[in-house]
Amino acid sequence: MKYSVTGMSCAACVAHVEKAVRGVKGVQNVSVSLLTASMEVDAPGVSQEEIIRAVKQAGYGASAGEAAGNTAEDEAAALKRRFILSLCFLLPLMYVSMGHMFGAPLPPFMEGTGGAVWFLLAQLLLTLPVCFIGRKFFIGGVRGVIRRAPGMDTLVSLGAAAGILYGLFALAEVIIGTVQGDSARVDLYRHDVYFEGAAMILTLITLGKWLEARSKGKTTDALRALADLAPKTASVIRDGQEITVPITDVVIGDLFIVRPGERIPVDGIVEDGASGVDESALTGESMPLDKTVGDSVSAATICVSGTLRCRATRVGEDTTLSQIIELVKEASATKAPLARTADKVSGIFAPVVTALALITLILWLIAGEEFKFALSRAIAVLVISCPCALGLATPVAVMVGSGVGAKHGILYKTAAALENAGKIRTVVLDKTGTLTEGTPAVTEIVPAEGITEEELLRTAAALEISSAHPLAKAIIAEADRREMTVIPAENFADVPGRGISGESGGEAARAGNAAFISEICTVPVPLLQAAEKMAGEGATPLYFARAEKCLGVIGAADAVRPTSRDAITQLHKLGLRTVLLTGDNQRTAAAAAAKLGIDPADVIAGVLPDGKEAVVRSLERSGPCAMVGDGINDAPALTRASVGIAIGAGSDIAVDAADVVLMRSDAADVAAAIRLSRRVIRNIRQNLFWAFFYNAICIPLAAGAFYPAFGLALSPMIAAGAMSLSSLFVVTNALRLNQVKPRDGAKDKPLRGARAASQNEITVHVDGMMCEHCQKYVTDALNALRGVRADVDWQSGIARISASGRVSDKAIRRAVKTAGYEVTGIER
Q: 211, 382, 522, 785: which has the highest count of C-beta atoms within 10 A?
């Protein structure tokens, strides 16, 4: 359940809200985002009222659902008003308090010892409005103390209050000195006040918070740009008439019309027309895709060349665009593992800093310094300390990175997924549909002597048109492409494991492997050689015969996508090991690997769908692993991997098993997702380093640690400015991620310290395997060994092992024997 939370000003506030909600019985998990002022709570059976009550008792506001409007922009506008109003009082205050230092004249009644009271009263009267304008700091600070949950507001209000209280003390001393005629006492305290310091602290921090809020608003630019893409109206057919209606009035089943140059209003199916559609807004794909009858279209994409009549299938919050926006919001509301240390520090930050400020005051007094000097150092410690930078370091980078990914069709479901993708060392790719087109196609037609290609293909299509085999569809598709008229064979019969038979043109015909065809005719040697060549290139050869004569051989294969080899090259440039996972036999898999540029040792063939999870589990032992698949039959493997990546999701972005969803069917986006993740991780580390480094250096500097040796000491005003700039630096640094181009691999390099593990190649001869099930048992048994990847071929009885460490012969024999088979030899 989502909630909007108000009143949070820093990471300490986040920690306190989370602690309060976790204290509610039945709450399983809670995640609070300072950046989006939101909270995600997993609490089955717990009412919304209980959650909201817990937040309010912690001193903050809460309501169910997301915040209305643009919270960051509203906050920025309010802070801007507060800053300008504060400045209107601060400038004359600075003139009165410090103008005389630059020769600026003062009203006569403020000059000299006689005007000292009015001089200080004027400063007080100009300071109090600034305090009133910045009263939120004091209200938040007091609430924090009362709730035993101090945060940034507590530190700021303590610093400002200390300055004002000392100023009031100085004013009282001046009044007493004036009444008693003690000019020495008056002169001692006349210029010894902190009214201007307190006002300056409040104004500068308000300025910093305003700039910070403006910058935070820019972190959602990518999301706003996506939301703005959706058209506000749609042209629909109602009662036979075309009318224009608001987009909110479109319902599922409506027939809508889109003309060239217009954006598609909702998701739908094309019922009439054809056009190129620019989907770059959703996928980052620059080239328009052709859409015709039966194809799906998505909201916010642009109809480029023709007019489309479409039936609405998903509207409102169910459109692909809306789901993308929601997914990015959800990812931004979660926490990356890198944020945990910052969260722990932020939770105790304010009490520790308050104690340090008190210790600073006491130590300088013990050292013999004046109270004013000691107080300055204590106030500087309070206002320079910045828990905000710690709290913003991770979420702003996650928000911007998620938005950039969404703009390029790369969707991270959680902040953890965004972080973990950058730590991947091995990428496992399912071959079919990921690196290949996913549908077999005819690659070569070799007719026998005296037979034409057309005659061979016509007979082949007549037989295969009644078959449900995937390769049959490839032959029918080729016949359709050539616009052949196909007459289905009669008396069709399927001979499992061998082929099919029937009657074509009144003559007996067959299709299948060489052994099946050889039963009725002799297969010419040239055809056998052609078939051998096809198999070596990764295609499956199919023989055809009619009237006891071999007609020829046709090769069919699931063609490698044109972009796949470049995708593998990009992954290798990133220092990643690529593993090809397929259910094909070793020979077909090896041929595909050769085309893709994958090391033959990294090919795992003959893996049935339910065996993929075991392979991934084995590879995970050697380091973080990503599994790339279509998200359908790869679900167990996607879940098992450190990062599951669903490719080619299109409009179906809610692939439950995946951590990262890629909108395009291009494996190059896997490298783009990892590349973007690495940039985000680097940015987060920069932010965290700055936040910790800033506090580690500035707190001792403010406390006067360098004063005895170097004479360095910060005034509270400079400390306030530094604190404001620290948060601004973190947000601004995160905004640099907007310039990242995930698909640009020009600067790719391996992770520091990432080296491919040396592999021990072992060939194991196994006796007793009779089928693919036997092959699976042996594969699973060997992959269960630590650091082992096994490619097993039941037909040859050979298991090829690639081991990242030392694996004994005894362990290999035991594993195979446990699976029910015997090892007859091991070669290293």
A: 382
